[in-house]
Design brief:
By secondary structure, the chain is an alpha+beta fold. About 25% of the residues lie in helices and about 30% in strands. It has 3 domains: about 65-255, Porin (Beta Barrel); about 400-610, no CATH class; about 610-710, Sporulation related repeat (Alpha-Beta Plaits, 2-Layer Sandwich).
Length: about 700
């Protein structure tokens, strides 16, 4: 018996721990309010919707509940009690777990123990008193009638089940105490007729009826009676052909271990903040009182009494992008560049901006000054990302007039909206180009050098090919003349290409012969070679380049076989022209740029071809114009730079502002002398150096200095 109870309790505890795990939270979405209905109707509909969702969720969940009850056990077998009514029996208990299979049927796993007893038995050869301890464990199923008694606190139920039954019957001949000294099984065996002991186990079919009272969301009280029909006739130790029965009157407390209705659900708070908004009035609102309603106003917040156009923007009579109420200079010429006050920039103002930029303590300061000085509606800064040969990612700032960008964008929109077959420029003419090379992969270094020997070389992208071409000729025979000149110089794959408004085709020799004969042109085979030496500025050698480089007329990228791009400028006839372009590029943040020279398809030392005739110091008409090499502008905190500057002799320090000083070296009356010094300093590692100029002690731009000395 103890083993039976221990096993049953262990099974019950294990089941309780397993079943009572908290389930996944259930999100109950809400419906949006229908603002066309009244609030009470909307709220009621919403609550009904939530209740339906709750019931649906609950209907599909197994909710474990603890089942504890006490009962009165009464025996109905082959013997009867002559002194008791049969209603007053012995007490017992029930414990177990119950859960809902669906909305209408509950299933329970119950363990039951109780005593049935009959006192005052007047049957011959049977003890005066009889009792049997009954233990059962099994499943029960109850139907709750919720389909009929919906949302009622008190509902009836009917139940049926099946249980394992174990009994232990005792008897007593003493009517004065509760000691049962007779083991009925042993007494059974004393009868010679009974040769074998009967089984004290069996099967029990319980049939139940009762009422269920819902106390709150967690507690229910269940009262009812259960009639137990067994398959054994040995509980009372009398065998008469009918099985023994007993019934139990019970009262149970059912506790919901995981109360679904008690969970706090996430139900979004429903608000309708726009319920009382007058949208018609909102559509007609004019916040800045300029006569243009806000929904059509492109310039919100126009000051009071300022005249506006149909779009609500302040009037700008001279179209300089500065409204009249802020414009300090009326009737500015069309296309003029103005400052933030609408005043046209003069040469003196532009030079002052340039010198301020030049004297900035750092590139960051220069950019900041540029943004403050140039009106943002006239200029745009484009930041390009490049990767140098060492793998470092660099950002290069390029400033362009906004007008150019607008024209470019309009052109792109125009080109995207049409097809080549439908677009014809009636004013255009057929031109002829010379295709010198077409490459799908990287180019050998020797070939790059050969290509750079051509002065006016240009490049473009076509599908996956990089194409290099030269010239734009209106006469095909002029193009052929240049073609033969290039072929004689070693560019044997040069072809003449006809460009008819973007429709390209190759012109054959037969076509050009026919044209030559038609004009009775003389032969053009004996032609001189190309220029002996070409100077270019190499901006950098990069791992990656921006595709914008291919759209710049004076910049040519060469992809090498090693995966690096050589970015060079157009060709120049003299070293001095290339050096001047190099200095301009340096001021545009291309600090790695340098002059290179190409002769006969080979790179040679550019300085060997410098015109030194003007490098000697000489007096000119403007003898007060001098050139210096600026090493940098530093403060006392730039200790590393100052240590490097101290290594040089003849360095001059000039105060720029409080704590900021300019460091220069040399004083030259010709720009060539300053260039020689700059190149020498660059080779020594002073790569941040550049040339500045002065006239009568006042700093001026390089452009003005060159004009004064006639360079």
């Amino acid at each position: 018996m103890k083993k039976f109870v221990s096993t049953s309790l262990f099974a019950l505890v294990f089941s309780t721990c397993s079943w009572s795990q908290i389930p996944d939270p259930v999100y109950i979405p809400s419906e949006y309010k229908d603002t066309t209905l009244n609030e009470s109707f909307s709220t009621t509909a919403n609550n009904d919707s939530l209740l339906t969702l709750k019931n649906e969720a609950k209907k599909n969940k197994l909710q474990p509940k603890l089942y504890i009850g006490f009962g009165n056990f009464n025996f109905k077998g082959d013997i009867s009690d002559t002194r008791n009514t049969g209603i007053i029996g012995q007490s017992g208990f029930q414990i177990g777990l119950t859960t809902n299979i669906n909305e209408f049927i509950d299933a329970s796993l119950l363990m039951e123990e109780g005593i049935v007893r009959v006192d005052g038995i007047n049957q011959e050869n049977f003890p005066t008193n009889f009792k049997s301890t009954i233990n059962t464990i099994g499943l029960r199923f109850d139907y709750n009638f919720k389909n009929i008694f919906e949302n009622k606190l008190l509902t009836p139920y009917l139940g049926i089940g099946i249980s394992y039954l174990k009994f232990d019957s005792k008897g007593s001949y003493d009517n004065t105490n509760n000691e049962y000294e007779v083991d009925l099984l042993n007494q059974w065996l004393l009868d010679p007729i009974n040769t074998e002991p009967y089984s004290q186990n069996g099967v029990d079919i319980p049939l139940s009826i009762g009422l269920n009272l819902k106390i709150n969301d967690r507690f229910n009280l269940k009262v009812g009676t259960t009639y137990h029909y067994t398959n054994t006739d040995y509980i009372d130790n009398i065998l008469d052909g009918n099985t023994d029965k007993y019934f139990v009157n019970t009262a149970h407390i059912i506790y919901d271990l995981q109360c679904f209705d008690c969970e706090e659900k996430y139900i979004p708070e429903i608000k309708d903040d726009y319920f009382v908004v007058d949208f018609n009035a909102l559509d007609k609102e004019d916040e800045d009182k300029d006569g243009v309603i806000d929904i059509d106003d492109f310039c919100i917040g126009t000051p009071k009494d300022v005249k506006v156009d149909a779009k609500g923007c302040p009037i700008d009579t001279d179209n300089d992008n500065i409204p009249d109420y802020l414009d300090k200079e009326a009737n500015t010429p069309k296309g003029a560049v103005v400052n933030s006050d609408g005043i046209q920039l003069t040469d003196e103002m532009s030079e002052a901006i340039y010198l301020s930029y030049l004297n900035s303590a750092s590139r960051k300061d220069a950019n900041s000054y540029f943004k403050d000085t140039y009106p943002s509606d006239k200029f745009i800064k484009l930041t390009k990302k490049v990767v140098n040969i060492e793998g470092d990612t660099l950002l290069v700032d390029i400033y362009k007039p906004r007008l150019f960008q607008q024209i470019y964008n309009q052109q792109k929109e125009f080109e995207n909206s049409i097809t080549a077959a439908k677009y014809f420029d009636l004013n255009s003419v057929v031109i002829y180009k010379l295709e010198i090379g077409k490459f799908a992969d990287g180019i050998e270094a020797s070939e790059i050098n050969r290509l750079m020997s051509i002065k006016n070389l240009k490049s473009t992208l076509s599908n996956d090919f990089t194409i290099y071409y030269l010239g734009e000729y209106k006469d095909v025979l002029k193009a052929r003349q240049k073609q033969k000149q290039l072929i004689n110089s070693g560019y044997v794959n040069t072809m003449v290409i006809e460009d008819n408004q973007g429709d390209l085709r190759t012109i054959t020799n037969e076509e050009m012969d026919e044209e030559r004969n038609r004009r009775a042109s003389k032969k053009l085979e004996d032609l001189p070679l190309l220029e002996n030496v070409i100077f270019r500025v190499q901006l950098d050698v990069l791992k990656e380049v921006d595709l914008d480089y291919y759209d710049l007329d004076d910049i040519i990228p060469f992809p090498g076989k090693n995966g690096l791009f050589h970015i060079v400028t157009e060709g120049y006839d003299t070293y001095e022209e290339a050096l001047e372009r190099r200095n301009e590029l340096y001021f545009m943040s291309y600090e790695n740029s340098n002059v290179i020279a190409i002769k006969g398809g080979q790179i040679v030392d550019a300085k060997d071809y410098m015109d030194l005739s003007q490098s000697k110091e000489k007096v000119n008409a403007y003898g007060d114009v001098i050139f210096k090499v600026q090493l940098g502008i530093y403060s006392e905190n730039d200790k590393a730079e100052l240590i490097k500057v101290d290594e040089l002799e003849g360095v001059e320090r000039t105060d720029i502002s409080e704590g900021i000083h300019r460091y220069t070296i040399g004083a030259y009356t010709s720009i060539q002398g300053a260039m020689l010094k700059l190149n020498k300093l660059t080779n020594q590692g002073y790569k941040g150096s550049y040339i500045i100029s002065f006239y009568k002690g006042e700093q001026i731009s390089i452009k003005k200095a060159k004009q004064l000395i006639g360079f």
